[in-house]
Write a structure and sequence with these properties.
Blueprint lengths: L3 E10 L31 E8 H11 L1 E10 L4 E8 L9 E6 L1 H11 L1 E11 L2 E10 L8 E6 L1 H10 L2 E8 L7 E7 L8 E7 L1 H11 L1 E8 L5 E7 L5 E7 L1 H10 L2 E11 L2 E10 L3 H10 L10 E4 L5 E5 L12 H13 L31 H4 L6 H16 L3 E6 L7 E4 L6 E4 L7 E11 L2 H15 L2 E6 L4
Antiparallel strand pairs: 1-22, 1-23, 2-4, 3-4, 5-7, 6-7, 8-10, 9-10, 11-13, 12-13, 14-16, 15-16, 17-18, 19-22, 20-21
Helix pairs in contact: 9-10
């Protein structure tokens, strides 16, 4: 039987990966520095729980922050749960906080400071109900018509309607299951936004209302029966989450992992264990958000993060940047990209030795796995992963056992090519491929086949093994 030499050429496709994102403009109320729960500019933030007044003051100073949400945990000490935001940039504002105050004393402080409330926590003491409050100057970007009242839901609803206002915070009043402290601001003109408030709502009810209202939470407080009082605003694109039953550390960890900041927190105790109910809001710049939306939804568990910094320049993007990770095999992608780029420019070749940095205290580096490859040729796994190489090896073994094998080899990338043109006796060497194309020959097989049908069948098997298109050509014969 006559056998013909057939060339099976594997064709690699070079594809460009483009990441796109759309900037979203959020419609809604005008936002000042103190309206931090409505802002999504990236900023530093902190959440503390079970801290005394002196400790909290020290932390505020250390962090260069201000308190945006305050709750009294243990009235007898007292201790607090507090949410802080870095007091710089769009969040910069004068502010005050007080505790152990009566309603009349708070009113006097508001007048003296020409201020408005942004957070209040009523708590019971042997001397009666006292308040822990946070206030900001009611001037400049913070200036709004505003009110605060203590009363039933019916009374508060009347005040909201009369003043054309919206609620920004609602808290249960100690000793009553039907009385609340409500803080409200003007909801007309540039301050107007869609909003809703509910009291004594279960978690499933709150979730259902959020869905039907197309809203996000901006405030929550917990009642003794396990239900919640909430304020929600229309949401036109802000990524946000809320969680109940978290440990304090898990809540903070999760927010950082998701590129969010906690904007409100309610601590409570169940079975002797402290739990958190928290609201998180987006805390990423445009690039960080675009990267997170690629990574975050695809990872069901575990820890992840990223950090992108321009060499000699600023940090461009990042999520959970302060955490230390073991990148392991993920770091190989960087090595592969660098090698491929250098080979395309002719600055590296397959036989070159790879040098990488490692922990000098652990010179054998058995666990870190930054790249356990000896030469650049092996880093070309970007073009053929391990499963593909195994499949090609099996295909080659079948070619040999079935008598079809003649020769096979892989080819370097087009960047390593040199075009030689000696037409007319004028020697010319040109770096780079003969034809610029997104597709190029990545390798080839030379096989013996009895006819074209056999050759096409072998090509189909080879294409499946190497996961590339295969071009079939017979050799010219006399």
């Amino acid at each position: 039987m006559k056998h013909r030499m057939i060339l099976l050429a594997a064709v690699a496709l070079v594809a460009q990966l483009a990441v796109g994102f759309a900037a979203t403009t959020h419609a809604g109320a005008s936002v000042g520095p103190a309206d931090d729960r409505q802002q999504t500019w990236p900023t530093g933030w902190w959440t503390y729980t079970g801290v005394t007044a002196s400790t909290l003051s020290t932390l505020v100073t250390k962090d260069g922050a201000r308190i945006t949400s305050l709750q009294v945990d243990n009235p007898s000490v007292p201790t607090f749960t507090a949410v802080l935001v870095q007091n710089t940039g769009p969040y910069a504002s004068g502010w005050w906080w007080y505790f152990g105050q009566t309603v009349a004393q708070v009113s006097a402080l508001l007048t003296a400071n020409s201020a408005r409330l942004i957070s209040a926590s009523p708590y019971a003491t042997p001397g009666g109900v006292r308040l822990a409050v946070v206030m900001v100057p009611n001037s400049g970007g913070n200036q709004k018509a505003w009110w605060w009242f203590v009363g039933t839901t019916s009374f508060l609803s009347t005040q909201l309607s009369t003043n054309h206002a919206r609620m920004i915070e609602v808290d249960p009043w100690p000793g009553s299951s039907s009385t609340y402290l409500g803080i409200m601001v003007d909801n007309t003109g540039t301050n107007a936004t869609g909003w809703w408030w509910y009291v004594h709502a279960s978690v499933p009810t709150v979730s259902s209302l959020l869905s039907s209202n197309h809203a996000r939470l901006v405030d929550l407080s917990r009642n003794g029966d396990g239900t919640f009082n909430v304020v929600m605003y229309s949401n036109t694109g802000v990524r946000w989450y809320w969680y109940v039953g978290s440990s304090p550390s898990a809540a903070v960890r999760r927010a950082g992992q998701q590129g969010e900041r906690i904007i409100d927190a309610a601590s409570y105790v169940v079975g002797g264990v402290k739990r958190f109910a928290v609201i998180e809001a987006q805390n990423t710049n445009v690039l960080s958000e675009a990267i997170w939306r690629i990574i975050g939804p695809t990872i069901p568990d575990g820890a992840y993060g990223f950090y992108l910094k321009q060499v000699g320049g600023p940090v461009l993007a990042g999520v959970d940047q302060s955490s230390q990770y073991e990148p392991a095999s993920a770091l190989k992608v960087l090595y592969h990209a660098v090698v491929i780029h250098k080979e395309s420019l002719g600055l590296a070749h397959d036989g070159d030795t790879i040098v990488y940095h490692y922990n000098t205290a652990d010179p054998t580096n058995p666990g870190i796995c930054p790249d356990n490859f000896a030469t650049t040729a092996l880093t070309s796994l970007i073009n053929a992963d391990q499963s593909e190489m195994d499949a090609v090896d099996e295909f080659n073994d079948r070619l040999r056992s079935d008598g079809h094998w003649v020769f096979a080899a892989g080819l370097e990338t087009p960047g390593a090519a040199t075009v030689v043109d000696n037409r007319g006796g004028k020697m010319l060497f040109t770096d780079g491929p003969f034809v610029e194309s997104k597709e190029y020959l990545a390798g080839f097989w030379i096989v013996e086949a009895s006819d074209l049908d056999v050759a096409l069948k072998l090509a189909a098997e080879g294409s499946g093994a190497c996961n590339r298109k295969v071009e079939v050509r017979p050799f010219l014969v006399d």
